[in-house]
Design a protein that fits this description.
The complex is a heterodimer of chains A (114) and B (111). Chain A is an all-beta fold. Chain A is 0% helix and 50% strand. Chain A has strands at 4-7, 10-13, 19-25, 31-38, 42-51, 54-57, 65-66, 76-78, 87-94, 104-105, 109-113. In chain B, strands 2, 4, 5, 9, 10 and 11 form a 6-stranded mixed sheet that branches. In chain B, strands 1-3-8-7-6 form a 5-stranded antiparallel sheet, with no helix packed on it. Classes of the chains: A mainly beta (114), B mainly beta (111).
Chain lengths: 114, 111
């Protein structure tokens, strides 16, 4: 089954404690991205990756890091989480063509930073 | 401007009614306009999408109307059902795989 898998689904952590949210896709997609979803703000892109070892900032990258060492994986790293990073996070992947195509989203990770 | 403005924030419609959700954009470089549907506890999923060379696209009970000159597009749901209750996001895309999303509309269809 074609899917994007995020882990964990729920996470409560304390301010300053480094954490990683994993994302994996099995569709051989080149393009992957991370979004955060906050009430009234929709989905805002944090980082994206056009291919292995190619990453770039989205609209709200501050406080986040990513890496793309393998095509299927795109982890999101919070080196020193703060309460304003409490949010619902989604990973997405899509084909890396020169036209926009369907983005497939994971189930989401609800992060609470206390 | 990369913003996409979506309205209303929430919408309640009786079963069988036709909810309409509107989006407006500024950047004329946008060339892909999808709508995503999100159920509680799930990630968004593509519902329907349109490119600016057509003014309307219909898939089942869902229709996108696109007005290029006004830089607006909207989603209509015909014969709405309680199972259509969800949050709907419009988006606009440009270049390869870049998307900006609207703020979302929480739709409730009452039985």
């Amino acid at each position: 089954e074609a899917q994007v898998t995020q882990n964990p689904r729920y996470l409560i952590t304390v301010t300053g404690k480094k954490l990683t949210v994993t994302c994996s896709q099995n569709m051989n997609h080149e393009y992957m991205s991370w979004y955060r979803q906050d009430p009234g703000l929709g989905l805002r892109q944090i980082y994206y990756s056009m291919n292995v070892e190619v990453t770039d900032k989205g609209d709200v990258p501050e406080g986040y890091k990513v890496s793309r060492k393998e095509k299927r994986n795109f982890p999101l790293i919070l080196e020193s989480p703060s309460p304003n990073q409490t949010s619902l996070y989604f990973c997405a992947s899509s084909l890396g063509t020169d036209m926009n195509t369907e983005a497939f989203f994971g189930q989401g990770t609800r992060l609470t930073v206390v | 401007q990369q913003q996409v403005k979506q309205s209303p924030q929430s919408l309640i419609v009786q079963k069988g009614g036709i909810p309409i959700i509107n989006c407006a954009y500024e950047n004329t470089a946008f060339d892909y306009f999808p709508w995503y549907q999100q159920f509680p506890g799930k990630g968004p999923a593509l519902l329907i999408a349109i490119r600016p060379d057509v003014s309307e696209k219909k898939e089942g009970r869902f229709t996108i109307s696109f007005n290029k000159s006004a830089k607006q597009f909207s989603l209509h749901i015909m014969d709405s059902q309680p199972g259509d209750s969800a949050t709907y996001f419009c988006a606009a895309g440009w270049e390869a795989q870049k998307l900006v999303f609207g703020q979302g509309t929480r739709l409730t269809i009452n039985p």
